[in-house]
Specification:
Two copies of one chain form a homodimer. With 248 residues, chain A is α+β, with helices and mostly antiparallel strands. Chain A has two domains: 140 residues, Jelly Rolls, CATH 2.60.120; 81 residues, Winged helix-like DNA-binding domain superfamily/Winged helix DNA-binding domain (Arc Repressor Mutant, subunit A), CATH 1.10.10.10. Helices cover 37% and strands 22% of the residues of chain A. The first copy, chain A, has seven helices and eleven strands. In chain A, the strands form three sheets. Chain A has a four-stranded antiparallel sheet with strand order 1-8-3-6. In chain A, a hairpin with a 5-residue loop joins strand 4 and strand 5. In chain A, helix 2 crosses helix 3, helix 4 crosses helix 7 and helix 5 packs across helix 6. Chain A is globular. Chains A and B meet through strand 4, strand 5, helix 2, helix 3 and helix 5 of A and strand 4, strand 5, helix 2, helix 3 and helix 5 of B. The first copy, chain A, binds a DNA duplex (30 and 30 nucleotides) through helix 6.
Chain lengths: 248, 248
DNA sequence: CGTAGATTTGAACGTCCTCAAGTCGAGTGG
DNA sequence: CCACTCGACTTGAGGACGTTCAAATCTACG
């Protein structure tokens, strides 16, 4: 199976335009001039796809043909080893790119799963390479996106390699908070799109540990938890935990 | 301080050529045609630098101007957090690129330290972007290199997030073995370039645990350790450990 | 309204860490 | 050449943190 079954939102001839997308200041085309945007309109994004909650956008082993920009919704990326171990390597929200793992081998090496009903912009990779040659700053932006992904992953390695459970959970929540607030959502009221188990997998912890840590944070007045609703009441307190300034 | 002090191996006008480099099948220019190699010769690599053992090629905060291809020697990459936590995020050997972290912000976000006297090829990033436009397959290869770095990091996340100490050490040794043998070195006799502490930092373990694990592997006949000399006697046994087929 | 899945909480256990002592080897100066 | 010294490594014992196993509670969805 090379591709899951999708229904394009638009007929093939009706392509998406970046210039009028409200994510253009967050997504791949940041920093492109009006003229450059006009040049890539209808060429960079060939189609939009709906991905239902729980469905895979692609999975390890699928042939790589495109990278995807999350337009609406929420995704997780997972690697698995032969023996069935699974690790969530990231969560992607609107404006973030999924599928960069496939460029190297022309085959995807991870799974990308929608955590809620989502829509993605399909960026055919061959076309991206072509446009990168024509539009200088698109190439530059694409390199920046990949570089940031590398840096982000190294931050996760720091977290997994040297932080305690409470520090990991605090760092996770703060990161989510910052990314959501960059998209205009409340910086304090978070609705988690993923289960405790998925958080645990991402943080290298068991779901019980995540749950216990949430409870402990609540007992210390850092936040209040109600199922997947999190209200951050003391972001500085969480930051102090991450920075090793305080403990709970 | 934007740059450490280096002595270029060659005068500025005497640039390095990829077409006659013995690493051209491993390094960035893999897959370039003879004509394409000729086109980038003397332009891609502007100079070579010596980096003494223990010296930093660059460090977090340095202005980003170039990526570096390891020509000879061995490097480690480290991220650090505000509170002084340090995490080794990778070890680089000949033919591998260092410095991709800086593209996103035009500032390096990690430290790159030579673990032995080394030489690197300096690839000015602006020139790389220019050449990528002129030479199609150079752009493609560069994307592949970055993509593989992303995949590699996700593999490390899997290791850090879901493997036990013995599995981590086994995976580390096998990885080292494969990369060394791809460069024509013995697949069984490894000379470690890094300390137990650096291995531990990379694997999210303490140096004592690394040491104990080596000893245990030796007791089980998987390898023999003498300081930094490792003789792998049972690679399949190590692989079985990584794959969760056996335990020690 | 009922069931399956997600979450919370408790208790016992195990892996890895911490602290500490001892060994080994390379480099240095007598 | 040998003794000395420092850093790296090894090994042991005890303890901490997170896991495992188990049960209760809660929610969402049909």
């Amino acid at each position: 199976m090379d591709h899951p079954v999708f229904k394009p939102l638009h007929a093939p001839h009706c392509t998406a335009v970046c210039s009028s997308c409200n994510l253009r200041e967050i997504c791949l085309p940041v920093g492109l001039s009006k003229e450059e945007l006009a040049h890539i309109d209808g060429r960079l994004v060939m189609a939009r796809l709906k991905v239902a909650r729980g469905a895979k956008l692609f999975q390890a082993g699928d042939r790589f043909t495109a990278v995807y920009a999350v337009w609406t919704g929420f995704f997780k990326s997972c690697v698995s080893s032969k023996d069935g171990r699974e690790q969530v390597t990231g969560f992607q929200m609107s404006g973030e790119l999924v599928g960069l793992d496939g460029i190297g081998q022309r085959v995807h090496e991870i799974d990308a799963v929608a955590l809620e009903d989502s829509q993605v912009c399909v960026i055919a990779y061959d076309e991206l390479e072509t446009l990168s040659i024509e539009v200088n700053s698109l190439q530059h932006q694409f390199h920046r996106v990949m570089s940031r992904e590398i840096v982000r992953n190294q931050g996760v390695m720091l977290l997994l390699g040297s932080m305690h459970a409470e520090e990991r959970v605090a760092a996770f929540l703060l990161n989510l908070m910052h990314r959501l607030s960059a998209r205009g959502f409340s910086a304090s009221a978070i609705v988690l799109r993923m289960s405790r188990e998925e958080i645990g997998s991402y943080l290298g912890l068991k779901l019980e540990t995540v749950s216990r840590t949430f409870s402990k944070f609540q007992a210390h007045g850092l936040l209040s938890v109600h199922h997947r609703q999190i209200q951050i009441t003391d972001p500085d307190g969480l930051q102090n935990l991450v920075d090793g300034i305080t403990a709970v």
